[in-house]
Structure to design on (125 residues):
């Protein structure tokens, strides 16, 4: 009976260690997402303040950003199955959120902040 107890204790110790590693990965992934999300907020505000952006442009960008955030969040759930109760996928969720957020930052910079961007004036909107 002692070998069975030893095996059980070993399994418990391995499980706790794996949970700690998963939690560390999740915290690291969450930290990366928070940094990307802060950068997105900064770039988005810069886009809203784009010179010559008229009311229609600003309103459209605001609506687009709201819808994009919904897409990002749902997309990450679809990619990872988050909410299934299996916390092993939490780090993948934050990874997916980070990847899509970084892509959005690039997209906004290219569309609104690129030096090659010659957007016509919409001040009269």
């Amino acid at each position: 009976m002692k070998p069975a107890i030893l095996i059980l204790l070993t399994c418990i110790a391995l499980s706790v260690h794996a949970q700690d590693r998963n939690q560390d990965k999740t915290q690291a992934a969450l930290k990366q997402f928070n940094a990307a999300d802060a950068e997105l907020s900064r770039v988005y505000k810069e886009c809203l303040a784009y010179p010559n952006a008229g009311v229609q442009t600003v309103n459209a960008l605001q609506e687009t950003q709201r819808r994009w955030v919904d897409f990002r969040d749902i997309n990450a759930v679809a990619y990872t199955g988050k909410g299934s109760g299996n916390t092993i996928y939490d780090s993948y969720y934050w990874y997916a959120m980070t990847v899509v957020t970084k892509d959005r930052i690039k997209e906004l910079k290219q569309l609104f902040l690129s030096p090659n961007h010659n957007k016509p004036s919409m001040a009269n909107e």
The chain has one domain: 2-113.
